[in-house]
Amino acid sequence: MKLYIKQKVFSWKDKFKVFDEYGREKYYVEGELFSLGKKLHVYDAQEKEVAFIAQKVFSFLPRYFVYVDGDEIAEIVKQFSLFRPKYTIDGLGWEIKGDFFAHDYEITQTGKRIVTINKQWMTWGDCYELDIENDCDEIVALGVVLAIDCVMAAQASVSVSTSSSD
Predict the structure, then answer these.
(1) Looking at per-residue confidence, does 98 or 74 come out higher?
(2) Separation of alpha carbons 86 and 38, rounded Å
(3) What structural domains and CATH numbers belong to the chain?
(4) Torsion of the alpha carbons at 59, 63, 67 and 70, rounded to the nearest 10
(5) Which is more confident, 152 or 22?
(6) Which residues, 6 or more positions from 39, have their beta carbon under 8 angstroms from its beta carbon?
(7) Which comes out higher in pLDDT, residue 153 or 92?
């Protein structure tokens, strides 16, 4: 199954729409404007919250938690590395590898593919394709990918503000 995450371009807070492979809106994601740390709520088409992503604020390395039905199911941590970003996904037994700068990576469990993520180029705003192997992993995979995107967006804004102050 494929999902497409499309970011709303002009918005004060994070907003994404998630479409299925037939172009139907399946989920929408909305961030909190005034909160301590980044928080994202994932809603289904019936406006029921199906996942929640929250940043741990006071942490040396970026750390996010993914909740489904109120239960913490995963912790995503950006590892310290000098050249290439590395992430761990605790709680699921999932591993992640690939080219994060190009938004081209894969999540596996004991060598079996869970989801492949690719950035769609030539689109207005960011758009990502998630190719999910098993339907039962859909919400969790979406939450994990959104958490990784939060870390990458924060890192990009830090590097832009640092380079513009030179």
Answers:
(1) 74
(2) 20
(3) 2-160 (2.40.160.200)
(4) 0
(5) 22
(6) 31, 32, 52, 53, 54, 55
(7) 92
Q: Label residue 19 exposed, middle or buried (CB < 10 Å: 0-12, 13-18, 19+).
A: middle
Per-chain mean pLDDT for the chain: 83
- How far apart (Å, rounded) are the C-alpha atoms in residues 1 and 115? 10
- What average pLDDT does this structure show over 98-102? 73
Angstrom CA distances, 91 to 76, 85, 87, stand at: 9, 20, 13
Q: Which residue matches tokens 């299925």?
A: 20
Q: How far apart are CA 164 and CA 166, in angstroms?
A: 6
Length of the chain: 166
Averaged pLDDT for residues 51-67:
86
What dihedral angle (degrees, nearest 10) is formed by the CA atoms of 48, 51, 55, 61? -170
Residue with tokens 């990784």: 148
